[in-house]
């Protein structure tokens, strides 16, 4: 019976979503850079944690450690390129 419990604990992971893609991680803490690397995102992208309700989504820096919980949702946006099209015209 004890072995069965140990097997379940070894397989325990947290389901998180990055840009709506499901990932299962087996760690309780990850940095922003590690989360972006997991999803093969460009290092220049800004990572955000989706917050519940009316709270604003939280930007996550590359060096910031995030406590991983079940069903967390992250998204990334590319660096701002404002004005680049206007200059070409």
Description:
- The chain has one domain (13-81): Ubiquitin-like (UB roll) (Roll), CATH 3.10.20.30.
- The radius of gyration is 17 Å and the shape is globular.
- It has helices at residues 2-11, 32-38, 84-88; strands at residues 14-18, 21-25, 29-31, 46-49, 58-60, 65-67, 72-77.
- The termini are far apart.
- Mean pLDDT is 85; it is low at 1-9.
- The protein contains three helices and seven strands, in the order αβββαββββα.
- With 89 residues, it is an alpha+beta fold.
- The chain has a five-stranded mixed sheet, with helices on one face.
CATH domain class name: Alpha Beta
Q: Which topology does CATH recognise?
A: Ubiquitin-like (UB roll)
What is the N-to-C order of secondary-structure elements (H for helix, E for strand)? HEEEHEEEEH
Give me the number of helical elements.
3
CATH-level-4 superfamily name: Beta-grasp domain
Residue windows where pLDDT falls under 50 for at least 5 positions: 1-9
N-C termini distance: 71 Å
Q: Per DSSP, what share of the residues sits in E-state strands of 2 or more residues?
A: 25-35%
Task: Please state how the strands of the largest beta sheet are arranged side by side.
Answer: 2-1-7-4-5
CATH hierarchy: architecture? Roll
The class by helix and strand makeup works out as alpha+beta
């Amino acid at each position: 019976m004890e072995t069965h419990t140990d097997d379940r604990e070894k397989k325990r992971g947290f389901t998180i979503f990055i840009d709506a893609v499901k990932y299962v991680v087996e760690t309780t803490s990850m940095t922003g850079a590690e989360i972006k690397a997991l999803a093969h995102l460009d290092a220049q992208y800004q990572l955000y944690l989706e917050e519940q309700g009316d709270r604003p989504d939280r930007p996550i820096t590359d060096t910031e450690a995030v406590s991983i919980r079940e069903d967390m949702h992250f998204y990334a946006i590319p660096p701002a390129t404002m004005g680049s099209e206007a200059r070409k015209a």
